[in-house]
């Protein structure tokens, strides 16, 4: 069964609605008390003099639809169960409770359940004497031959435009006409790396690793095609070309970048960059997002929506609202850089040759590069999964210098100092700083005449001083210190490799980590797993023996 943060599945939607009512910043929402099973959120500042706007559908698309109830947007939202259309009675209850003489417009996403339930409720309301119209959003262009395009994130733009005209006092006929015209000028297409996880149901993992599904629906329904890539540039290029066909030459459009629920802010930043560098960009004048407006629970994906713009539509979209889910319209701008003063570094040592030293350096670096994936997998169990990438980044930098014959191999003190400087720049987090401290201090000791093993041990002591870790704390020191100690005592690389191996093995059975990311984990998470840094030291000395 899929994991989901909830108490009881049967109360999930009710409790989520209550949370939305509690946290709305405008204090303008109330839940309609109209009988059991009726989930309708309404504006509590509504006086029925203007055209009422009602939307809704299955839950799981938050902030849609409750997040768009408020002045300047929806009058009411009708909430069904997760991905299930609300009942006819629920829609009808919303209509009769918020509709006055000005009438009511139902804004419906083009799904069979929503069309039927909202449509029948409209017919019943008309029979009761209410003036009711429907605007059915069908902005999906992923399935070009589909006679019934689905309603996607473009629905939110229709909420906003219709809300503006209703707020201005326009008639039901005009609000409806404006909404339908905007629907005709709206196009959306979505893509996902993985489908959503429905509460209480098994996870569907039909999208293979490294692939993506173009046109996956907002309920997890299959899309039009599977792409053999997750590359951001290729994907956005594909989608942008399809959207560009919907923006005629000479026209300007707004782009809505919508998170379907599972994209991180980091990925959304990349998405925005690619979209605004795509063939579509020259036809875009304004932007909304990237943000979550119409989600699909936790779906790992996004959608892009275009809306043709004119001055009046832009004015309507920019008008202020009191709805927590709405995002401001902005004009995309080119990234700007400002000149900064670079850090002044001492002159680097002149390159020099020493084949034996170079072989050792290359062997150490290549071993760490080859271990990247293995170390990351090991670190993912006890840390944040980046130890391999961090060490490999430093190793690649040094290898590059070696291949370019840019290192002072015949001057060990200067070589260690230079390595220390470069590792601080290219290795992220604390690892780069600690390694830089060690090699910089060791270089100073060599400069003062100490033998290499003693210099490296002195560098390790400075690392321990600043980093705080000691033998037994479950870090790379558990393997590195005994290995260096063996060299200090005049033993060879074989003995040092054995000492490193024993130290790394010991970390798998240590009671708890006292330094590094592993120190935040409980003992059960660490049992039987070597520290990744200690394992890296073990493998390096193993390669040198």
In short:
Keywords: ATP-binding, Kinase, Nucleotide-binding, Transferase. By secondary structure, the chain is of the alpha/beta class.
Explained architecture:
This protein has 545 residues and is an alpha/beta fold. It folds into 2 domains: 11-196 and 208-330, Dihydroxyacetone kinase, domain 1 (Rossmann fold), CATH 3.40.50; 355-544, DhaL domain (Serine Threonine Protein Phosphatase 5, Tetratricopeptide repeat, Alpha Horseshoe). The protein has helices spanning 12-23, 88-98, 112-127, 154-167, 172-184, 232-244, 265-275, 311-318, 355-370, 372-382, 387-403, 412-426, 429-447, 452-467, 477-488, 493-507, 523-526, 532-544, and strands at 29-31, 40-43, 52-59, 76-82, 104-109, 132-137, 186-194, 212-214, 225-227, 253-259, 284-291, 300-308, 329-330. The strands form 2 sheets. A 7-stranded mixed beta sheet has the order 9-8-7-12-10-11-13. The chain has a 6-stranded mixed beta sheet with strand order 1-2-4-3-5-6, sandwiched between helices. β1 and β2 (40-43) form a beta hairpin. α13 (429-447) packs antiparallel against α14 (452-467). The relative contact order is 0.07.
